[in-house]
Amino acid sequence: MIDVLVIGGGNAALCAALMALEAGASVLMLEAAPREWRGGNSMHTRNLRCMHDEPQDVLVDAYPEEEFWQDLLKVTGGATNEALARLVIRASSTCRPWMRKHGVRFQPSLSGALHTARTNAFFMGGGKALVNAYHRSAEALGARVRYDAPVDRLELRDGRFVAAFVGDERIEARACVLAAGGFESNREWLRDAWGRNDAGEWPADNFLIRGTRFNRGTLLRFMVDAGADSIGDPTQAHMVAIDARAPLYDGGICTRIDCVSLGVVVNRDARRFYDEGEDFWPKRYAIWGRLVAQQPGQIAYSIIDAKAVGRFMPPVFPGTKANSLPELARALQLDEARFMATLTAYNDACRPGAFDHTKLDDCVTEGLAPPKTHWARPIETPPFYGYALRPGVTFTYLGLKVDDTAAVRFGGEASPNLFVAGEMMAGNVLGKGYTAGVGMSIGTAFGRIAGTRAAQAALKEREHAAA
Ligand SMILES: Cc1cc2nc3c(=O)[nH]c(=O)nc-3n(C[C@H](O)[C@H](O)[C@H](O)COP(=O)(O)OP(=O)(O)OC[C@H]3O[C@@H](n4cnc5c(N)ncnc54)[C@H](O)[C@@H]3O)c2cc1C
Fold first, then answer.
1. CA 43–ligand 1 middle distance (angstroms)
2. Which residue stretches of 148-265 are H helix?
3. Quick check: 379 and 123 in contact, CB under 8 A?
4. Which NCBIfam families match (predicted)?
């Protein structure tokens, strides 16, 4: 019998598999995707957020535990478990040598990459290279991997894992790690969770999925129905405002529109609805998908002028360009009079300051609701650009409740041989909000714990059976 069955094929699954292998367990991974699409959302990633007390290889200055914790506390509005969050933060300071050992290479953050040189370690070759490196290492250590193997249910006995089913095939193991992502790719579940708004719309029908199509939440639902303790609100997710022209799945990072803080954003009625300059973009980009989801028609438009060009990572597709603001309104099919009223009110409210996009500067609006509290400069220099935005779901936060052992719990009782990692439990740390790179920090920390614990449970049972 296999010692550790790992369900999933992304970062959390691979970290779990590698730790279990290092501990001497035999490992089988079941990945829903075909080989060419392996790696889930992890293949789309670029970096992980790392605590450090002094400069470390690719990271400049320091990013101490307390600052990381305060950042997390701020974005989640307190909807986080401090003990588990601190566990993740501390683990993020020591995981990179282990990642390197398994073939991951790091590089400094690119210039213009959203002020992340201090806080985030970038993977050379991105998440795809990370997934490939981990697979190479896992296979060298003897892991077996099966693709096109979506698990649809488990056999559980009194809180113990017994077997997993891929269709009619029953696969037994001594212990199991669930790392099968959230339910972001399950559009019916998203529709259900978001329901209908006051205007009679189904907002989720207009969501795009930034990553894999394989995270359908099948096992998450199975586990919740089987009585596993869960945590989180099904409407909470990492949601980015992305290019409305992005494909339904797997558009990845190149569909991001990163100029929001340099201009204004209006909705379909040509009205502003949120402070575009509230904080640095890496601390705010993940709330904009949700904000757009709350607008009529679930669409919004990021408006900039020539002054912003060159100050943000340009999107893949060019924006709608116009030589005047009324022309831009017409090109975006927005009510021209209302658009001009919004832009004129904004431009008139901008107070002169020393513009500096690398800090929270003093360029603010006065007497405007909602205000723009940093980087507020009149939008008056042609040419003007507009980008239509849609909510892009990255990953959902509803998950299974854990403690620091990563064990799945039933009525507060920890399972002896069933563990969970990654998006399937990220909601313990992320009740809402997001700060760039913390998804991989959570998956790496808990993937490693889950793999270690699963190997311990399996080896103990193996010894027991042999005795
Ligand atoms: C475009 C994009 C960019 C991102 N950038 C970053 C970043 O730079 N830094 C960061 O920290 N986070 C980033 N994230 C978030 C990050 O991807 C996730 O936090 C992290 O990858 C989650 O890892 P995971 O292993 O839990 O899930 P995934 O990597 O999604 O893996 C889930 C795996 O489970 C498999 N699976 C699903 N259901 C089943 C089933 N029933 N049976 C078997 N297998 C199943 C899937 O095929 C997949 O292999 C990004 C996400 C996206 C979409």
1. 7
2. 187-194, 218-225
3. no
4. CobZ_N-term, PRK08274.1
Q: Which residues have C-beta atoms less than 6 Å from ligand 1?
A: 7-13, 30-33, 39-42, 44-48, 150-151, 179-181, 210-212, 214-215, 218-219, 252-253, 394-395, 422-423, 437-440, 443
> Across the chain, what does the average pLDDT equal?
96
Per-residue pLDDT reduced to its tens digit, 97-137: 999 999 999 998 776 555 688 999 999 999 999 999 999 99
pLDDT at 300 over 80: yes
Mean local confidence (pLDDT), 408-433: 96
> Which whole number is the average pLDDT over 447-452?
98
CATH class name, domain 2-182+217-236+397-466: alpha beta
- How far is residue 141's CA from residue 17's CA, in Å, rounded to a whole number? 10
How far apart are alpha carbons 51 and 7 in whole angstroms?
Answer: 29
CA of 41 to the centre of ligand 1 (A): 3
Q: What is the pLDDT of residue 115?
A: 67
Count of CB atoms within 10 A of residue 132's CB? 16
Compute the C-alpha angle 95/100/106, nearest 5°: 95
Domain spans of the chain, in order of start: 2-182+217-236+397-466, 238-392
CATH of 238-392, picked from 3.40.630.30, 3.40.640.10, 3.30.428.70, 3.90.700.10, is 3.90.700.10
The predicted-structure confidence for 305-328, as pLDDT tens digits, reads as follows 999 999 998 898 999 999 999 999
For ligand 1, pick from 71, 145, 210, 214 the residue to mutate: most ligand atoms within 8 Å of CB: 214
CA of 250 to the centre of ligand 1 (A): 11
Distance from the CA of 422 to the center of ligand 1, in angstroms?
8
pLDDT, residue 287, reads 86
